[in-house]
Amino acid sequence: MHALFRTKSLAFWSAACLCLLAFFLSWSFGGAPAYPWQFLSGSEDMDILRRILIDIRLPRVLAACLIGGALAAAGVLTQGLFRNPLASPSVIGISSGGVLGAIIAFYLGLNLVSLWMLPLFALVGCLMTTVILLRFARDPRGFPIEDLLLIGFALNGILSALTSFVLSLSIHDYDKGPAMMNWMLGTLSGKTWDHCVVAVGPIVMGVIYAQKLAYRFNVLSLGNDVAQTLGLDLKRLRMESVLLISLLVGTSVSMSGLMPFIGLIVPHFTRIMVGPDHRQLLGLSVINGMTLLMLADLLARVVIPPQELQVGVLVSLIGSPFFLWMLYQRRRHAAL
Prior knowledge:
Order of helices and strands: HHHHHHHHHHHHH
Number of strands: 0
CATH architecture: Orthogonal Bundle
């Protein structure tokens, strides 16, 4: 027991230290040669330094923390709700619903009215998609992962087609079209303190509330029949989970566009570190999600400076092979 506690404690502190290192590196390096330690040297260009590090780079790094942590938490909730390790907001279409909602807000020009409009429309898109998934997944014996993935792929296809349709209506609008396409590919460029202020409340409250549900997800992992025998209110848990997943994914998607596979990779990797207990899994997944997205954003900025790669594209390049590897491992274990 003590050895297990020490192992989990070591995993937590290791992840926390790596997250702090990623934060410092992401804040320190970018397209412009500006570094935090230059504040101590009394540089003559202090105003430019402050502008780059405090007004441009720091809110971008904090946005990566918020989005990465939120998507990782949403991935844990999605996998716990469907009791499938291959379920994630991006794989089963929830993220695509948020993208469609936000693209509609872009098309209508509502993003210019208020910073709250994108999160609101993305939240509605995520919520509707999750409700559709739950309607299909009403099997008291559990829902086969293959059917869930097929439904998710179908929803992804439908939602992506609708998103492309809205984009096609704006392709000749040079004010909207390029901005919508750039956002949809997944980017953290141009994030300001205002974006962080809008997102921090919903994401922090969502993660805190998700942590309160962690024990109930442990009970749910035993199966619906056992969970009901132990007094778990399944209907309430599903409703709360749907709202939380939609809140976390909708807020994240509205800030950065599509960041696929974070909700798949991070919970799976974290589960290897601390096991299936959601009380440890959720918090550590949030830390690891922050680390992953900060490092991906750093890579996007420094690979071909002064140009930037799309962060969502980099995350997809990492996540797609990982997803195929997980499918292969699942089929191999099933054959044994």
